[in-house]
Specification:
Layout lengths: L20 H20 L6 H21 L3 H24 L9
Length: about 100
């Protein structure tokens, strides 16, 4: 016999069906900073933005991983962390956190 689809069935990635506003905030901030740092890393003169956004994104992503509760959060945090790391390291290679401003 066919069963009806339940509207409150949790998705594949949100396995517990509960809201996690703090974890989702860290996830969103990490992804946004990852996109920002990855995008600006390809421009040599934007190394300050790239390196600082990458560093802050790495820190927020690491703490987000520490408190994450679902697979969806962990998956997007890892994507954001990877983009932040690439942006951070390319920003460091192009001049660093204080390159040209201090020293």
């Amino acid at each position: 016999m066919a069963q009806a689809v339940r509207p409150n069935t949790p998705s594949l990635f949100a396995t517990d069906g509960k809201a996690h506003p703090l974890q989702d905030t860290f996830m969103a901030v990490t992804v946004v900073l990852g996109v920002l740092s990855f995008t600006t890393a390809w421009f040599y003169n934007l190394h300050l933005v790239s390196s600082w956004a990458g560093l802050i994104g790495i820190l927020t992503g690491a703490y987000g991983q520490f408190i994450s509760a679902t697979t969806r959060e962990r998956f997007l945090l890892i994507l954001g962390l990877g983009a932040c790391a690439v942006g951070f390291f390319l920003g460091m290679a192009h001049g660093g956190l204080f390159g040209g401003v201090v020293g």
